[in-house]
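Sanity check record (used in CI):
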Amino acid sequence: MIVNESTGSADGLRMAGTVRFAGVMLLTLGAFQAMEGLRTLLQERAYLVTPDGMLIALDWTVWGWGHLVLGLICAATGWGVLRGLMWARVAGVLFTAFAALAHFALLAAAPLWCSILICVEVVIIYALCAHGSEVRHPRR
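Expected output for DUF7144 domain-containing protein:
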C-alpha cells in the first residue's frame, strides 16, 4: 500500500491515487509507444508523410526503434512508479518529457494521435511532479 510520506498514514490516498494513475498511464504510454514503434518497423507506409516532411528528417526505421525502446523504458518506469520507487518518479518525468518531444516531432505524420499522447504525457508529468513526493513505498 502506498502511504502519505509526511504523516505515515493513509491520509493522502487521493494524492497517492494520482501517482498510481501516473504509474498506470506510464505503463499504458509505454505500450502505445512500443506498438507505434513496431507498426513503424513492420509497415513504413503507416504514415502519410515522408521522412523529409517531418520536423526531424530521420529514416522510419530509426523512428520505429526509437519508439520501441522508449516504450519499453516508459513501461518499466511505470512499474517502478507503481512500486513507489523514487528513481522511477524522476525517470518518469524525464522519459515522459522526452516522449512528448518525440511526439511533437512526429506531429506532421499523425496529428490527432500525437496530440492525444502529448496531452496524456503532460498529465503524467503533472501527477509525478505535483504529488510524487507525497507518497512512498513503505519499508517492510
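Helices lie at 13-42, 60-82, 86-105, 111-131. If this sentence no longer matches the regenerated C-alpha cells, the check is flagged for review.
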